Amino acid sequence: MTLTPEAKILWETAVALDRANPAVSLPPLLFLTDPARTPRPWETAGRLPAGAAVIHRHFGAADAGEMARRLRETTAAAGVRLLIALDPDLAEAVGADGAHLPERAVDQAAALRARRPDWLITGAWHGGPQADAPVDALVLSPVFSAGGASAARPALGMARFTALVAAARRPVYALGGIEAGNAPSLIGTGACGLAGVGAIQAAFAT
To answer: Which of 13, 84, 156, 179 is surrounded by the most beta carbons within 10 Å?
Structure first.
């Protein structure tokens, strides 16, 4: 697959971050869906490099099940892992590879881990006190000024983000306002990979 210049930068940066954390085995790049911002997420999912992952956040949308099944079909064909946010029953129903928990629900990780020890489990984090939850990785946001659910939160900035990663008990993905122009600046912060919504959709559009 030929990547756009923006997609190539995002993927190569994500892989570089992943390689700098050899002690963990995680997808380098996470594409987070959003019913409003990514109305056709399977199109982006099908263009991601093998080894990436999709986090399906349906926010209670009526077509959540249909979308999850379509994403599972697409990601399985592309060699991309699929995580379902805050809906383990749906994740099991479609044969997903794991689950993602918003920060308010990270305390559910222990029960989820006991239920599905084979799953990849990630949890959202916004820089406050960490719950010592048995997740595989945290998704920390917003690094830079962002849209969507993080629009109202002040950007952490590079110095704060780097300090939080260093203090974290789990590997940390960078999320929030990340695009091809600023992604390489995250190399050296200790992040284990990149996560995004609109920038990934735009970069992998063709």
So the answer is: 84
Q: 144-152: long-range contacts (C-beta < 8 A, 24 or more apart)?
A: 144/176, 144/177, 144/178, 144/182, 145/176, 145/177, 146/175, 146/176, 146/177, 147/37, 147/177, 147/197, 147/198, 148/34, 148/36, 148/37, 148/197, 148/198, 149/34, 150/126, 150/175, 150/176
pLDDT tens per residue, range 61-94: 889 999 999 999 999 999 999 999 999 999 999 9
Beta bridge partners of 187: none
- What is the reported pTM? 0.95
Nearest-5° Cα angle at 100, 159 to 15: 55
pLDDT digits 0-9 by tens, 148-161: 665 678 999 999 99
Report DSSP state, residue 51: T
Pull the structure tokens for residue 43: 């199109």
* Percentage of the chain exceeding pLDDT 90: 86
For 71, the enclosing helix (H) or strand (E) is helix 64-78
pLDDT in tens, 126-140: 999 877 899 999 999
- Under a CB-based contact definition with an 8 Å cutoff, are residues 84 and 68 in contact? yes
**Lookup: tokens for 177:** 């306002």
